[in-house]
Amino acid sequence: MVNSHPYEDKLWRLIEWLKLMRLLGASKVVLYDGQMHANMTRVVKDYLASSPGFLELRPMSLGRGEPHARPHFHHYAMLADGFNRILNEMIPYNDCFYRNMYKYDYVGVFDIDEVIMPLGNHTTWPELVKLARVVPDYESRTSADCTEWVSFFFRNVYYPRYPERPKVYRNLSSSFYMLQHVERVREHCNRGAAAKCLHDTRFAVGLHNHFTFFHTEESACAGKSVPIEFAQMQHYREPDTKSLLIDPIVDASIWRFQPQLQARVEERFRRLGFLPTDQKLAETLEKRRKRDEQQLKEALGNLIRLKKTLIRPNRFKSLTYISASAGI
C-alpha cells in the first residue's frame, strides 16, 4: 500500500484496517511512505516497535525524473498529473512483490479503503483461496481445464458514506469507519472494473494495481473471477457514477468480526493515548458527577431564593392602601 495523506488524518481508519487485515489472515503488510499525517506516522512507528514482523515501512521516491525534494513535493506532484501518479505507483507495487515473492504464497495490492471480504461460512483469506480454486469462474472466461490461475479476482462493490442517513449501528462510535458503514450500492461492478486480486507468487511476473500485468502463461491460466456469493471487494468510497448511490442496501458482512475488531482497535487506541484508560475514564466520570451535583445544588438554591422573593408581601402598597382608607 502507498500511503500519501500528509494533510488528512486517517489514523482511525488505518488502525481499523490493519486490525482487520490481521483477522482476515494477512501475514504481513508493507507500507510505502508517500508522506503521511503526523498521527498516522505515530501509529506506524508503534506497529514497527510492537509488531515488526507484521508491518514494514519502506521509503518511496518518484521514479520518472522528479527531484527527491523535501516533504509535500511528492503529494503535489502526484496530484498534478494522474497518469504520472499511476506510473510512479507501479514501482512500489512491484518492489513489494519482488521482495516477498519467495516468502509468501499470495500477495495483494490494496488501499486502506479496500478489503476483500469472504462471505458465507468463510472468514479468512486462506480459507477463501482454497474455495476459489474449486468454485466456477464468473462469466467462464478461463478454460474449464485450468487447474492453476495467476490470480483470483474479487468484484468491486462501493460502500459510500451516506452522511445524510442515520447510523445503522448506534452503539459504536463514529471512529469505527468500516463497522459503521454497512450500507452499500445495490449492484457490484463488472468483472474488470476496480476489482482487486490475490496473486499467486509462483506465476505472477509483474503487477498492476488491479490485475497481473504478466505471468508465466505456460504454467497458469489468466485470473479467475470469484463469484460474489463467496466474496467481494468492499470499497469504502463514493462511486464515480453517482446514480449508483440511489437505493442502497444494508450489507453488514463485516459485523461477523465486530467483537474482536472493536476490542483490538480500542486496545490500540488506548495504547497510543487516543482513548483514556479505564482508570482515567472512571476519574473523568466521577469529576463529571461531582460537577453536575454542584450545579444542581446551585440551581436549587437559586430557585428557592427566587421563590421567597416572589411570595414576600409588598409593604409599601399595603401602607398606601391603609392611609387612603384612613383619609376617607
UniProtKB/TrEMBL annotation:
Coiled coil: 282-309
GO cellular component: cytoplasm; membrane
Principal location class: membrane
Swiss-Prot/TrEMBL keywords: Coiled coil, Glycosyltransferase, Membrane, Transferase, Transmembrane, Transmembrane helix
Signal peptide (UniProt feature, chain positions): none
Enzyme class per UniProt: transferase
Topology in the lipid bilayer: Single-pass membrane protein
Localization, UniProt: Membrane
GO molecular function, one term: glycosyltransferase activity
Superkingdom as given in the UniProt entry: Eukaryota
Pfam families xref list: Glyco_transf_92
Assigned EC number: 2.4.1.-
InterPro entries listed in its UniProt record: Glyco_transf_92 (IPR008166)
Family stated for the protein in its record: Belongs to the glycosyltransferase 92 family.
Official protein name in the record: Glycosyltransferase family 92 protein
Organism: Drosophila gunungcola
Species lineage: Eukaryota, Metazoa, Ecdysozoa, Arthropoda, Hexapoda
